[in-house]
Amino acid sequence: MTNAEDAVDALVVGARPAGSATAIALARAGKRVVVLDRSRFPSDTLSTHLLWPGGLAELRALGALDRVEALGAPRLPIGMAVGDGITLRGSYSTVDGVGYGMCVRRTGLDAALVRTAREAGAQVREGCRVTGLVVRSGRVTGVRFTGRDGTEEELRAPLVVGADGRRSTVARLVGVERPYRREPSGRACFFGYWTDPHPPWREIAAQWRAGAELGTAFPCDGGLVLCLLQPPQDRAADFRQDTEAEYLRTIKAMPGLAERLRGGELVGGIRSATGIESYFRRSSGPGWALPGDAGHFKDPVTAQGIRDALRYGRLLGEMAAPVLHTDRLDAALLDWERRREAECLEVYQWTNGLARGERMTPLEIELYRSARQRDRLTTLMLDVYSRSRRPGEVATPRRGLALATAALARPAADRRTVLAALSRDLRTMVSDALERRAVRRRPLPPTPGLEGPRAP
Q1: pLDDT at residue 441, rounded to an integer
Q2: The FAD-binding domain covers which part of the protein (predicted)?
Q3: Residue 293 and residue 203: Cα distance in Å, rounded?
Q4: How confident is the model at residue 2 (pLDDT cuts 50, 70, 90)?
Q5: In this structure, how many other beta carbons lie within 10 angstroms of the beta carbon of residue 389?
């Protein structure tokens, strides 16, 4: 074991988007940063990896956008959504000069971020597995890990960052693995890559909804297109019997998506994620913090994970750097955690609604009809995904009432169904607003006490 007094300014566990973003910000502030990751890059990971303009703006802020664009994924300036036979096409408002999305496979994206972190001055050690935390007087003061040659090592730092994903080792070791806010998804995920024989579609990020089914096609690097299906969770059993056959059958049952992929070939196998749960965990404490999925996760249906990992990793580094060796560090970490919760809670609530795994309601259908006639409304809807607009700017009580009125005026309208949808939407708006107000007023749940050293 190396000298226990070996010390740096910050230790980051995990080198993917959240960890690299944190390390870049700290290193650019002149701090000595060591990043540990069990993978060796380039390395893939389970992810749907679509970035809206807001996510690409975060890559630009980190100095990684040019490197990521060089991977060859096409720019996606057009967003398209099809529901109940109604097609919406629109463009995004620019975010820090970026007005397009991109779908970049994680093998290249994560390696590009690791290279950017190294260029900023961070030391990234690959093939390292964290086995425990060093704790003194209730504070996390370092980590113990096994290096790529199998030797046990220990490093000390005033800040340990757990950027190690949903199954975070750091979250488990500090005792916050159980979320304080959680919501099971009503959808499962199954995705694969296809060759893409349709050049005109390579600038469009597209989504189709048919009944309770949801499917997407996002052009990505390597001349491929990512096709993600999110069927209702109760259909996961159908996929388990013969995953590829059910995946292909589901695509065939969505004519628009089937036409988009016509002439392409499925490359490799189908990847899946079932039993998905969105959550907030306590994400800061004495000497530690959890950016990325380690601390907060949203269902993939709105594709927010990478953007938030980049943004709040960067902000964590920027807020912690000036106070790393002072008694103000813990307060800065708590401020960072509160900021993320305040900025992400409404999007978390909106995402949970889209992840119910249900058919479109009459009000959603009317929203599509209205947006088809108004380009500005389509852009507003796309900007919610990009995070330049709030969900509440689309889902207002006034708009809900207007949509219900239009739906009731349809000749074949089911009055009971329309009013039930309006009632649920209004109740959800009120309960979500009350939750956000309560969050602003009440403290976060306490973090558990630590006595160390901590080991698995």
Answers
A1: 84
A2: 8-343
A3: 29
A4: very low
A5: 16
Q: For residues 20 and 314, give the distance between their C-alpha atoms in angstroms, rounded to a whole number.
A: 9
**How far is residue 220's CA from residue 65's CA, in Å, rounded to a whole number?**
15
Q: pLDDT confidence of 448, banded at 50, 70, 90?
A: confident
* Cβ proximity of 313 and 295 under 8 Å: no
What amino acid occupies position 155? L
- Using a 10 angstrom Cβ sphere, with 0-12 exposed, 13-18 middle and 19 or more buried, the burial of residue 64 is buried
The answer to whether the predicted template modeling score (pTM) of the entire model surpasses 0.90 is: yes
Q: Which amino acid is at 57?
A: A
Q: Which two tokens stand for residue 452?
A: 């160390």
DSSP one-letter code for 390: -
Percent of the chain, pLDDT > 70? Answer: 97
Question: Rounded to an integer, what distance in angstroms lies between the CA atom of residue 123 and that of residue 217?
Answer: 37
Q: Which helix (H) or strand (E) holds 194?
A: strand 189-195
| 10-49+105-183+278-351 has CATH 3.50.50.60 classification | yes
Q: Tell me how crowded residue 390 is: count the other CB atoms within 10 A of its CB.
A: 14
